[in-house]
Design goal:
By secondary structure, this protein is α+β, with helices and mostly antiparallel strands. It has 2 domains: 74 residues, Roll (Ubiquitin-like (UB roll)); 91 residues, MazG-like (Helix Hairpins), CATH 1.10.287. 43% of the residues lie in helices and 18% in strands. The chain has a 4-stranded mixed sheet with strand order 2-1-6-5, covered by helices on one side. It has a two-stranded antiparallel sheet with strand order 3-4. β1 and β2 form a beta hairpin. It is elongated, with a radius of gyration of 23 Å. This is Histidine biosynthesis bifunctional protein HisIE. Keywords: Amino-acid biosynthesis, ATP-binding, Cytoplasm, Histidine biosynthesis, Hydrolase, Multifunctional enzyme, Nucleotide-binding.
Length: 200
């Protein structure tokens, strides 16, 4: 990997720090060649502090270090993407990120869909919302719907209509997300179980 530390007269390159699991951007720091080499050697992310004018390993005072996973360089060889496992909040203010965002896993559209389902549960307007009506009928009805949709997926999997298979799969996933909410869980909890199994 070639990094152009000489592109700027300071010898510094920006280092964007990202959580390797959640993909949340945690902070922006700067590295010179010495900080980069120390990061690689110790597997603890080290920057060059422009205010302290010295190398600075994240967490050396707070204990909230950044364990290195990998480093990538951009197409111009002058910006780094540093993937890490953070040990505690990253920002000096105590926030998860320097943008005051929570560092939690998101699943794009599925996370938005979970929020909508949670809102429908809260509003409990069963006359206007199919989701609210399922919550009103309770766990047995919701579990039954998941079972029915699972059977439909199996049936369509054995057929040759890909469109029907995908539609039934979407129905199954949708009702499963409702079931998770009814049980007090989210997709993130299921992913955590899978990740723990993967580490064994």
């Amino acid at each position: 990997m070639t990094i152009d530390f000489k592109k700027e007269s300071s010898g510094l390159v920006p280092a964007i720090v990202q959580d390797a699991n959640t993909k949340t951007v945690l902070m922006l720091g700067y590295m010179n060649e010495e900080a980069y080499k120390k990061t690689i050697e110790t597997k603890l992310v080290t920057f060059y502090s422009r205010s302290k004018e010295r190398l600075w390993t994240k967490g050396e005072e707070s204990g909230h270090s950044l364990d290195l996973v990998d480093i990538k360089v951009d197409c111009d060889n002058d910006t780094l993407l540093v993937n890490v496992y953070p040990n505690g909040p990253t920002c000096h203010t105590g926030a998860d990120t320097c943008w005051k965002e929570d560092n939690k896993a998101t699943f794009g559209f599925l996370t938005n869909l979970e929020s909508t389902i949670a809102q429908r549960k809260l509003e409990a307007n069963s006359k206007e919302s199919y989701v609210a009506s399922l919550f009103e009928e309770g766990i047995n009805k919701i579990a039954q719907k998941v079972g029915e949709e699972a059977v439909e997926v199996v049936i369509e999997a054995k057929d040759n209509d890909d469109n029907l298979f995908l539609n039934e799969s979407a129905d199954l996933l949708f009702h499963y997300l409702i079931l998770l909410q009814q049980k007090g869980f989210q997709l993130e909890d299921v992913v955590d179980v899978l990740e723990r199994r993967n580490k064994k």
